[in-house]
Recover the amino acids of this structure.
């Protein structure tokens, strides 16, 4: 009787243990191979120059728009002033060219009037020559004057077109004025680039410079950790992936705060892993000879979005996490 009871207890215990193990490892997948992450931005300079202001400190929290550092703005301010001066000179030149157009237009009108008068005079002379009231020399001289008047008209038309082209109007827009305005915009942009601001709320990190450092275009000066969105990259065995779906709720614990618990949500599961065995080398697959008797599960990254933390428990990149995906 005692043996049967013990056997029944063992069977029930084995069933319970099996259910418990299944619940831990499959129904609610769990892993401690997980780390807190956030996006980062390497902040550099769009213009080169010496850093003259550095009002921030390493690990400082900054808000969007906060001044991070200032590149010496004096040469760029000078370039901006020069561009504005050239813009004003361009407007003066355009006014002068318009006066030239008016003068060329008046000159063309005079040339046309001279040609018209000469043509009319020649038309009156021709009948008179037939009646011997004028000589052939008079007619020839008048014709030469008409040719000269027509040539003067063509020259005046060319001068007028040249003056109009010099103004720089194309597609109903003055290209000379537009070029001067664009030069101001470019100089203004470079001047504004001297003042570098935080692109989002975050934390300054890896600040290893001081005032006086020379900043080169495109070279990172510091890094900002994006505080707007934190997530956990948890690495699960591939045999557990079918039990994990986007949108599932996740319980998160951090070794930094043992008494605190956080909630998250599965955003997605990684689609690819890099495998050195089989990677292409010199255009050919590199396959190593192996005698693996034990097949190890691959571990795929699962991105888990964290809900906002609090001032007492701030998130930090690299914190070790323990995550449990809730199936219900």
């Amino acid at each position: 009787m005692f043996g049967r009871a013990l056997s029944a207890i063992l069977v029930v215990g084995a069933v319970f243990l099996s259910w418990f193990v299944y619940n831990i490892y499959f129904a609610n997948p769990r892993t401690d191979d997980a780390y807190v992450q956030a996006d980062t931005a390497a902040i550099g300079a769009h213009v080169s120059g010496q850093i003259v202001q550095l009002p921030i400190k390493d690990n400082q929290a900054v808000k969007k728009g906060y001044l991070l550092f200032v590149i010496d703005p004096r040469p760029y301010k000078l370039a901006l002033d020069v561009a504005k001066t050239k813009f004003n000179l361009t407007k003066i030149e355009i006014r002068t060219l318009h006066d030239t157009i008016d003068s060329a237009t008046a000159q063309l009108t005079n040339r046309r009037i001279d040609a018209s008068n000469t043509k009319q005079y020649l038309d009156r002379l021709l009948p008179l020559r037939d009646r011997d009231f004028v000589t052939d020399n008079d007619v020839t001289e008048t014709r030469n004057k008409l040719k000269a008047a027509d040539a003067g008209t063509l020259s005046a038309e060319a001068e007028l077109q040249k003056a109009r082209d010099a103004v720089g109007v194309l597609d109903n827009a003055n290209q000379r004025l537009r070029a001067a305005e664009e030069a101001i915009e470019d100089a203004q942009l470079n001047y504004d680039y001297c003042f570098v601001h935080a692109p989002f709320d975050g934390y300054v990190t890896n600040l290893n410079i001081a005032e006086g450092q020379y900043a080169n275009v495109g070279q990172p000066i510091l890094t900002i950790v994006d505080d707007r969105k934190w997530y956990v990259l948890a690495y699960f065995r591939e045999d557990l992936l079918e039990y994990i779906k986007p949108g599932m709720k996740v319980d998160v614990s951090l070794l930094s705060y043992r008494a605190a618990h956080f909630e998250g949500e599965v955003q997605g599961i990684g689609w690819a892993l890099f495998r050195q065995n089989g990677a292409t080398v010199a255009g050919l697959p590199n396959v190593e000879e192996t005698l693996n008797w034990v097949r190890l599960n691959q571990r795929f990254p699962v991105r888990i979005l964290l809900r906002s933390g609090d001032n007492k428990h701030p998130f930090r990149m690299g914190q070790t996490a323990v995550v449990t995906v809730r199936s219900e």
